[in-house]
Amino acid sequence: MIQVLQPSPSHGTAAIEHLLPDNANHRAVELSIVIPAMNEEITVGEFIDWCKEGLERAQVSGQILIVDSSTDNTPSIVLEHGGEVLRTPKRGVGRAYIDAIPYIRGKWILMGDADLTYDFREIAPFVQEFRKGAEFIMGSRFRGSIEKGAMPKLHRYFGTPLTNWILNRIYRSNYSDIHCGIRGVTREALERINITSEGWEYASEMVLKAARLKLTSAEVPIKFYRDREGRLSHHRRVGWRSPWLAGWVNLKVMLVYAADSFLLKAGLVLMVIGLILSLGLAAGPVRIWKIGFSLHWMLLGVTCTTLGYSSIQIGILARVMHGLKSRFVERLQKIVTYDRGMIGSAVLIGAGLVLLGNLAFDYLKRGLQLEAISHPAILGLLLVMLGFQTFCFTLLMEMAKRVISRSRH
User: Fold this and answer.
1) Which end of the chain is more exposed for a tag (fewer CB within 10 A), N or C?
2) What integer is the mean pLDDT of 253-273?
3) What is the mean pLDDT of residues 10-24?
4) pLDDT, tens only, 275-290
5) What is the mean pLDDT of residues 96-119?
6) In the chain, where are the structural domains located?
7) Residue 70: closest CA among 84, 88, 48
8) Given pLDDT bands bounded at 50, 70 and 90, which one contains residue 10?
9) 208-to-92, 175, 294, 308 alpha-carbon distances in Å
């Protein structure tokens, strides 16, 4: 057995051990099967054998890499059966995949679990999709088969269908099983996805980013088996809270990576409605048929405009921060410059102060008393607020540009 010690690429002082079986080689392969594992001595030996059989059936050269943080005999069993072991500190499933990237030798990557719930003897359909040009491939238990007792009813009939529906509505995708544990991705696509989640929510992050990046995607029907005798799944170990916690975390990830989409759309609608009301009533009350539009409607317009403008700005910043729309960000940086932002904010604030000047004059003329606020004065307040928001947004965009530039270098 060969042992290679290397510092963790992302944690400097924390050592990672790369253990290889006898007669191992370092040549490039087509497919790397990369699996995080912790205390899987009951199943991992048979799992490695399944992987070997699957690679042979698919007629593809492969690497079997187990990212391990076990306290039992899992690593020694993996090496005995001919797999590679990457010994890492216990830092979460997502972190395991991040740590594994420098050690992956394949142009295609297959992810999953070592618990024998997914049949790695039948990986040929994934390989076929890769050869057709797929960049991201999801397994689907619902389009394949689910062994009796393998999936809790709450997951099967409520949680998974509901989160599938939400994701497909937000991202305009067509996944049938976003929580399936077996999935494939090309090395290039994995680098573009850039996993940041260190826990098991990495799985949702991958699906969402693949949708946002418009990767060429496919689904493969798979068989899903129940746990082997003597082994407890993660959800059963956590208890009744597990499905609800999983649903909450998945919803959080969906909203975080879709924040720009719904904020931009909702903000645009609010701002259009607000501007129609604010500008339409700037000269005074308006009556259309039997409906009177007065000061109260204008205040509603001001509220909608400021909320909409804020929503648009936060949506733009979210899109810049998550970096999934690189062309949009590049175009935006050319349009939204520091000089234009500062000039725009100055013009808005200046125009607002001019309109408020009449109100101030009236206030002084009446002996520091104000009987009523005028419609033009309310428009002036709106312009001052929009000008200040533009000033703040310009500064934040300039900061974001510097952060992005620094990260690239």
Assistant:
1) C
2) 87
3) 73
4) 999 999 988 888 888 7
5) 94
6) 2-239, 257-408
7) 88
8) very low
9) 19, 11, 45, 25
- Amino acid at residue number 353: L
Provide, rounded to the nearest whole percent, the portion of the chain with pLDDT above 70: 88
Number of H helices, E strands in the chain: 14, 11
Q: Give the H/E segment covering residue 350.
A: helix 338-365
363 band by pLDDT with thresholds 50, 70 and 90: low
**Tokens representing residue 380 in the block:** 């002036």
What's the CA dihedral at 290, 296, 299, 301 to 10 degrees? Answer: -20
Determine the 3-state secondary structure of 297 from DSSP. Answer: helix
3-state secondary structure of 204: helix
Name the β-bridge partners of 138: 183, 219
- Taking the CA atoms of the chain, what radius of gyration do you get in angstroms? 28
**How many angstroms separate the CA atoms of 242 and 240, rounded?**
6
Tokens 């393998």 -> residue: 150
Q: Which pLDDT does position 92 carry in this prediction?
A: 85
Q: Are 86 and 18 in contact (CB under 8 A)?
A: yes
Fold of the 2-239 domain: Spore Coat Polysaccharide Biosynthesis Protein SpsA; Chain A (3.90.550)
Strands 136-146 and 106-111 turn out to be unpaired
